[in-house]
User: What shape does this take?
Amino acid sequence: KPIVGEKEIIVKNRKLFNMNFLKNVVSYMRPSQDDGRKEIYDLKLEGRLYELIPGRQVNPKKCIFMECQISLDQEEEWDYVIRIKNLAEDDGDADYVDEQVFAVERDMNLTYLVTHDDGDVIYNLKWEIENSRQIILEFFNEKEATDVLQKLCYLLYETINHQPFEQASEEDLNGLFRFLDLPSLNSASLKVRQPEDSSEDEFEEAQEERDVTRVQVPDRHQEDVYGEVSAKETEEENKEYDNLVKELEKHTISVRPQFDVHTFDFGLNQVVYTTEVTLLKYEPREEKSYLIDDAVAFHVKKRAEYSYFMQLLIDEDTVLMNDLTNEVNLHVDGDQRAIMWMTTGCNAWTAIFPSDSDIKEFQNLYIQCIYEVEARESYAKNVKEEDQEWLQLLNTPLDITMHAEYNPEMIAEVDMNFGSGEQDSIYHVAEDNKSELEAGKRRDRSYIVSGQSINYFQTSEDNQDELTHLDRISIVKDLNGNELNPNKLQLHSSDNRLLMLDEFNRNKVFAMDLNRGSIVEEYQVDESTEIHGITPESKFAQIGGGDNFIAQNNRGLFLLDPRIGSKSQAALRKDYKTNPKFSCMATTRIGELAVGSDKGEVRLYQGVGKNAKTLLPGLGDPILGIDTTVDGKWVLSTCKTYLTLIPTAGAKGGKLGFQASLGKNKPNPIKLQLHPYDMASHGIDDIDFKKARFNSTLDNEETTLVTSTGRYIVMWSLRDIIKGKLMSYKITKEDERILSNEFGFHTDEKVLLTMPRDIKIAKANKSTF
Assistant: This one.
């Protein structure tokens, strides 16, 4: 039944929430203390539950429940789930499932989808779960659909912000979901929608009527990326540019309008930036860019709080519209006054801005937009002015005249060339779900998790480029005989022990004796403290016989000493009352500690138990992995769509940021990403970087860093990066999707790769000169 004073829903006008509501709504939302399941409400719905099958053009929906009942339940504080019960009777079918449960979480990408099938209007709620699977809850009643959508937005707001939903603004709630109206799920793509007045036939006819001459723009690897298309500083060169534009007007190609489905106008639509640009489209098969139009209106609009999109128009007709998120892989090239980005279908675009001030203004706004979209908080209120200035340098090469310790001539020059001329070594492993890889530091061993099993390998005695399978531990069990699901592997104690966490028992670290192949000890901070990650006490500590190691959860750091014979092995600890959302960590050779977070922040510590000497802000993206050079002069963080290389020198007295605060002397960070043109050429429509690593060894300084995404290995030269050649990387395609990557035993010329079916040594074939 409707709640008195409930927020108004007017979907037809694309306005979901009216913030005029009464306090009894709040009490209604709170679960009863006597209810063991903490059920918020239970609605009997005339609906169905489906899974959307990607790529299937006919009948793309797989039915899960033909009739279902939905409830929104609270598991813990600020932790909610969607519980969907199957109302069909159990007729003895072995595949019968009683209910499905889905987490309410930030990355669910909630969409309100209206479709029209054979005259019937169907109202759908769509969201994403793990592995990019999409779930659809279908209703034939608009009131039921919007009612559930409304309550779900309440709980999603609380999940993200950890505060009651009554504190949300109208913009907050409207920014939590996307709206889409489609003719039919069976006939329309959920990725691209053409405007109603631009049919495919009309587009083809228009193309046939035109005599199209294509104009080449010089390749991006040339010294001047856009050659003559770039506006020049002098008046004479500006005239040349104007003349060229007039000439290009005679040789343009037309382009079909393209919209991402969630960027249709609704909400505030407040214009926060506008200019006029020259628009080009990259054609990967010809390795050329073609002029679309030299007078394109370019707008950045604010749809809702923490939600922005770009809109490009020719003669007041929209041709491109994209959300401003990291998924479009937007790259700013200030020197060329240009931005490049990706759209659906692996299309790469370039917009050239009219002046230096225009591109600078856009770049500063872009940093703000991305931060607010990812962090879900105000950039102006939460990022200090000096940190804003630091973040705005993300796309700027390092000024080596200000930082002599980063002279590129001090780093060996390398020629990176994966797999050239030699056959890579491949070993087939039958088990699926190979999730983690740990390479030996003292002994030539590599350990790979496959589900509940651990396989280990070494290079062949006869051929150091070949892998030999040594043994397999089929089931790992704890001291009580309970089966474990190993993850977060770390070699320890001269590579004689393998430390690991369990996916479902997060309060302990388990130590396996590799000579016996079984768990022999268990460690903990205390009985109630979870452990989310572990790392050596210092880089290469595994080579020695040290006992200590470092553990971390989202609120604290702990130095564990296995020799402490009590219920707690925590020798030192640093706990935070507020949640910094720690996600990963790495150490230098002398034990300094770099810690990344789900907020995108990096903290630098001289050691566990002390306050951070330096706090470096981020763009709000979760940091998935972090690494340091042996000397600690560089920190490398991995986010889903980009890497950040951070110099740590610059503190007073020539100290690093681990030893003293960098303050306002922070060298600018360096953002590393794939060029949109390369993504289009290789058909990469989604970036999902695995943990990037330096080629750290005991004997040599780092010269390269390596990561992977999908089926591609990507390697950068540190020397080239310092010189400002941020797009000078080597990208190599593998036969399968890469699950993890790590440099091999005592070498920086071989990279171990785990893939769904194989383990592989990829030879970098690097030559130093």
Notes: The radius of gyration is 28 Å. The longest strand covers residues 288-304.
